[in-house]
Amino acid sequence: MASETTTVKEIPIEIKSAKKSIWLQMKKMKLLYVMLLFPAVMLFIFSYLPMYGVLIAFKNFSPGLGIWGSPWNNFEHFTRLFEDFLFIRALKNTLIISLLKIVIAFPAPIIFALLLNEIRNQKFLKVTQSISYLPHFMSWVILSAMIIEVFSPQRGIVNFIITAFDGDPINFLSSKVFFVPVLILTDIWKEIGYGAIIYLASIASVDPAQYEAAEMDGAGRFKKMIHITLPAIMPMVIILFILRLGGVLNAGFDQILNLYNPLVYEVADIIDTYVYRSGLEQFQFDYATAVGLFKNIIGIIFILGANAIIRRKSEHGIW
Q1: Does pTM top 0.70 for this prediction?
Q2: Contact residues for 159 (Cβ-Cβ < 8 A; gap 6+)
Q3: CB 77, CB 287: distance < 8 Å
Q4: Fold annotation for 75-313
Q5: Measured between alpha carbons, how far is 33 from 170 in angstroms, rounded to an integer?
Q6: How do residues 153-166 score in pLDDT, each as one tens digit?
Q7: C-alpha 16: how far from its chain's center?
Q8: Where are the domains of the chain?
Q9: What is the distance, to the nearest Å, from the Cα of residue 279 to the centroid of all Cα atoms in its chain?
């Protein structure tokens, strides 16, 4: 009985000591917590407080009545979504462009990181990395102006090469056939270098002894890449792939808004540009909010579904 009493009495003491140690650690890192406070406040102000505005998706919003004073609409806007030809077209285009970017653009940084890892000349490696990173830090406004000039039918270098081989100039950005391929290629060009950074960091954590053991077994550079490097970065690939699936309805608003025109709406108008036109140009704030809310719900479903499937097949996942 005495031993049982002692055990019962010791439990609160252990809890107190654990709380005390956590408090001491927080005091030691108080400057870091102060630094964390600013982004946390900004996240709350700009990401969580505006969620109140989602209510207008369920109302016939009137600026004079305000959000709460506007009448409820019995899900009228969500019913209208699937009766609107323009929304159905935008949804189809979003899925096509986004899936093409996943299939073609998502593996590009992985392949690029594997290739960079094989470069032994450090000067050449640094120059290559710097050049590949640069487009990421430029806005699509600037890059779009460059792309428009490069693909211009009158003065673009691409059409100059085509005409040099006796071809006819092509207006790539006004063609329903070529516009989407241009989107995919320019997206890869912009993000391939920066996207490779996280994979290079994962590769750097691989134990060099594994490569040495593989060399002793007669493995060449390609086999070491396939059997050592690629499995090492696979957990990161899976996590980023799940997050990318969560944004499957984000097909690249900035890029498309700065490059598209009415001639290619049929293949280039996506949900985000549709929301932009409906909300800001046509002042249908309630309907545009409903479209945006629908998009976000689909994104959450994709993240949860992809994570659940991958967790069943492997030990990797977001949670």
Answers
A1: yes
A2: 151, 152, 153, 169, 170
A3: yes
A4: MetI-like fold (1.10.3720)
A5: 56
A6: 888 899 999 998 88
A7: 43
A8: 2-51, 75-313
A9: 23
